[in-house]
Amino acid sequence: MLNIDEIGDYRDLLKNFFVQKKLEFPLFSYKMMGQKLGLETSQVFRVLNKESHLPAQSIPLSKKLLGLKGRDGELFEILVAASRTKSKAKKDKLYKMALALQDVSLRKLNSNEILFLSRWWIPVVRSIIEINGGKADVRTLVKQITPAVSEDQVKEAIRVLKELKMITPLASERYAVSTVNFTSAGATKVTAIRSYQNQLLTLAQNALVNIPPSERNISSILACVDDECLEDLVEMTCEFRRQVQKRVAEVAEPKKVMQFIFSLYPVADISDKETSKEKARIA
User: Fold this and answer.
1) Cβ atoms of 61 and 37 closer than 8 Å
2) What contacts 156, CB < 8 A, 6 or more positions away?
3) Cα–Cα distances in Å, from 120 out to 182, 207, 223?
4) Alpha-carbon distance 210 to 49, whole Å?
5) pLDDT (tens digit per residue) in 121-152
C-alpha cells in the first residue's frame, strides 16, 4: 500500500504506482496508465519524470487510480497545488495545510535532523557534493541524481546540510564536507528512519524497472532456519555491513553513490508458540 505521508511531490506517488504495477504485470505500460488518467502516452512519461504536471481533469482520475479517499485525497490535491505554484509564500502555506492533515507523529518531523533522516535524497546530495570536490551547483546535482528530483528538493537538501553543518561554505561557491553526529530521541526518530527505509525499498523497486542489470545487483535468498541460525545470520549481516563500510572507506576517488540495503525478515513461522507459552507458565 502506498504511503502518502512519505511523499513530498505528488508525482512520486504516480511513479511508485507505475513501478509497482510494472513489477506485478510486466506488460503494464505508459499507454495503459494514460488510458486510466485520460492522458496521451507522452504526457504520462513527462508527468512521471517530473517534466510536466497533471491537467486538472486528471486529478480525480489519479485519486481513483491510487485509491486515495478522505484525508489522503485532500492531501493529494494540496500536494498537486503546492508542486504547481511558483509562489514560495503560497507553497509554504499549502505545505502547512498538508502538514496539518498528517498524523500527529508525522507532524513532529520538522527539524533539520529529522528531514535528513526522512528524505532519501538529502544524504545523496551530501555525498555528491563531496565527490564533486565541494561543488554544489543545483542544476548539476539534479542531473546527477537518480531517480529524478526537483531543483527545490536539492535546494532544500543544501539548506538542511548547511544548517546541520554537514557542509560549510567556502570561497568560489564551494563547500567543505564534514560528518556531524546527531541524535533525535524517541518515537520521532523511529518514524523518520522507517520513512527513510521505506523510501529506499521503493527506490530498489524502481531500479528493477529502470536500471540495467549491469548497473545494479538485487537478489534474495529464501532460507529455512532455527533460532540459533537466525542469530548467526543477524550477526553475519552486521559483520558484512562493517566490512562494506571498511571497503568503502578505502576508496580514494569515488565516482558513484550507491544505496546498499540489508534485509532479513520472517515470512513464515511454524514454531509451536502456544506450547512454548504453556511450558513457560509451568516453569
Assistant:
1) yes
2) 115, 119, 122
3) 17, 15, 30
4) 12
5) 999 999 999 898 899 999 999 999 988 889 99
Q: Which residues, including other chains, have CB under 8 Å from residue 184's CB and lie 6 or more apart?
A: 111, 113, 114, 117, 192
**Contact, 13 vs 2, CB < 8 A?**
yes
Check if the beta carbon of residue 2 is closer than 8 Å to that of residue 18: no
**C-beta of residue 121 within 8 angstroms of C-beta of residue 157:** yes
Where residue 110 falls among pLDDT bands split at 50, 70, 90? very low
Nine cell digits for residue 23: 513489477
The set of cell numbers assigned to 65 is 487510480
Query: Looking up cell 564533486, which residue turns up?
Result: 132
pLDDT tens by residue, 150-165: 999 999 999 989 988 8
pLDDT at 106: 40
